[in-house]
Write a structure and sequence with these properties.
It is built from three helices and 20 strands. It is mostly beta strands.
Length: 271
């Protein structure tokens, strides 16, 4: 999918602008017709085609999504014909993601008649949680040392990656969130049965333990993870040996069933 573009309605100047200098459209004809540019998730108001195809027997077929389907807004753009968007199912479980293909380009009218904006009931979905109190440097002080991690998909799967799996996927390990267009095979996946949110804690329920996670057994065949935002942050600078560029890691501290985890990213910058 394309890099997400943002647009804003600007009533004072009567224009809709597109990030990175795109075309413009008259706001008078769009401000009541189209959704705002900062909307990330929507549900469909009717059954419709939104550029999603699914592989069946080796062939891709266009999917007519049902009414009330949750979609991720991959990008928006505006011109004099109105505001268009590109959609996906977002970050779904690995096996399902392998069967999907999304249309490249923003072509679907981003109208209030077609879509309603929604906020995720569990905002931690797609966040990548890594084991430990924060990023640490590897022995050579050239990169962050990979650790095991996991995330919760939009279709209610818990995907776990052991340390060696994370080490193979620099993007997954060094990013805050999983993305639609970068799909990595997990070490283990389990279907969740329920997800609840109370204050700073999200609780994920599932029916089989995940080796490598601090599973809390409730009863036979019932487990849970209590993911709590500690609301504290950390930072680590890593200077490469040749001094050509540095890496900066930042994170927010969490606990998972009382064990330390963190959520953050590793960024590189040329000196």
């Amino acid at each position: 999918m394309q890099i997400r573009l943002k647009w804003w309605l600007t009533a004072l100047v009567g224009l809709v602008t597109v990030g990175v200098g795109g075309p413009v459209a008259n706001a008078a004809s769009t401000d009541k017709t189209y959704l705002a540019g900062d909307v990330s998730y929507v549900r469909t108001k009717r059954a419709m085609f939104v550029g999603i195809s699914k592989k069946v027997n080796g062939q891709y077929h266009a999917v007519k999504v049902k009414k009330n389907t949750l979609l991720y807004v991959e990008g928006t753009s505006a011109d004099h014909s109105g505001v268009k968007a590109a959609f996906s199912y977002g970050v779904v479980n690995y096996n399902r993601a392998q069967t999907l293909k999304y249309k490249n380009g923003m072509t679907i009218p981003f109208t209030k008649a077609n879509f309603k904006p929604v906020r995720l009931k569990a905002p931690i979905r797609t966040q990548i949680f890594l084991a430990g109190k924060g990023f640490t440097a590897n022995a050579a002080n050239t990169n962050a040392a990979p650790t095991a991690g996991f995330f919760l998909t939009l279709d209610n799967y818990l995907q776990f990656y052991e340390r060696s799996a994370m080490a193979k996927n620099d993007f997954l390990f060094g990013s805050r969130r999983a993305t639609t267009n970068r799909v990595y095979k997990p070490t283990q996946t389990v279907k969740t049965t329920k997800v609840t949110v109370k204050g700073n804690t999200t609780t994920v329920y599932y029916q089989q333990p995940v080796k490598g996670l601090p599973n809390q057994k409730i009863s036979q065949g019932h487990y849970r993870l209590k993911i709590t935002n500690q609301k504290t942050m950390g930072q680590l600078g890593i200077q490469l040996v040749d001094g050509s560029y540095a890496q900066n890691a930042t994170w927010t501290n969490y606990t998972v069933n009382g064990k330390p985890y963190h959520f953050g990213e590793v960024e590189s910058a040329d000196n």
